[in-house]
């Protein structure tokens, strides 16, 4: 039984005592006045709406390539995977361009990676196309092993030869300092060297300085 309602404190005092629960024969039933501001009609007609949960978008078909160097990774994940690997390490991966393309990421040097877009032709339901094109069809290979040996590994050997050369420096700033120091030691002899191209992964810059007061030529 409701004993008291305190609207200011939003509290209700209740009692379950038998003598208070029973109104008695002569006890009048006191009906509290309903809240005039409350919409009782709307409450009776209210029907809870069903909440439709949107389904998460499903991923597209997963590409699987039967090759020991294949990994189910994005190009960012491939870089993370190759970070502690030796220079020349390779990851074959699905291409973000979809079917008909294969992505190859390989490590050139510390924190420098090259991504190769391989275009597949003559696939005809095979797991990998029978014609693989690189650099807009400039180089064509019959399978991934041939492409890796003749294209990627050949590039890796050239990079290895250059980065281990006595005239190599990892950055343009290092190379410019090297040229200046060389001319300070021997001002009668011109100085040259090469470094990694910061704008083109896999590219190199050749720098030449004729004399101490000469400008540095860059190719």
Automatic annotation (TrEMBL):
In terms of superkingdom, the source organism counts as: Eukaryota
Q: Where is the SH2 domain?
A: 77-166
A Pfam cross-reference name? SH2_2
Q: Which UniProt keywords apply?
A: SH2 domain
CDD domains per UniProt: SH2_Nterm_SPT6_like
InterPro entries reported in the protein's UniProt record: SH2, SH2_dom_sf, Spt6_SH2, Spt6_SH2_N, TF_Spt6
Q: Which residues form the signal peptide?
A: none
Q: Could you confirm whether the keyword Endoplasmic reticulum appears in this record? A: no
| Segments of this protein annotated with the region Disordered | 45-64
Listed GO molecular functions? histone binding; nucleosome binding
A single GO cellular-component term from the record reads: transcription elongation factor complex
Any single GO BP term = nucleosome organization
- The protein here is known as 15262_t:CDS:1
């Amino acid at each position: 039984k409701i004993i008291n309602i305190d609207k200011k404190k939003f509290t209700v005092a209740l009692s379950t005592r038998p003598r208070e629960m029973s109104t008695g024969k002569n006890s009048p039933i006191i009906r509290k006045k309903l809240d005039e501001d409350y919409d009782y009609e709307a409450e009776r007609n209210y029907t809870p709406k069903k909440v439709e949960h949107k389904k998460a978008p499903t991923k597209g078909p997963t590409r699987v390539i039967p090759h020991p160097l294949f990994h189910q990774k994005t190009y960012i994940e491939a870089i993370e995977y190759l970070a502690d690997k030796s220079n020349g390490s390779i990851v074959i991966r699905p291409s973000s361009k979809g079917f008909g393309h294969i992505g190859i990421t390989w490590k050139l040097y510390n924190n420098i990676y090259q991504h190769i877009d391989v275009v597949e032709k003559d696939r005809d339901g095979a797991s990998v196309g029978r014609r693989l094109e690189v650099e807009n069809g400039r180089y064509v290979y019959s399978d991934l092993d041939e492409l890796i040996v003749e294209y990627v590994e050949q590039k890796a050997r050239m990079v290895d030869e250059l980065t281990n050369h006595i005239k190599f420096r990892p950055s343009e700033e290092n190379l410019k300092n090297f040229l200046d120091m060389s001319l300070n030691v021997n001002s009668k002899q011109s100085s040259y060297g090469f470094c990694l191209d910061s704008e083109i992964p896999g590219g190199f810059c050749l720098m030449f300085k004729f004399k101490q007061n000469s400008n540095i030529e860059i190719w």
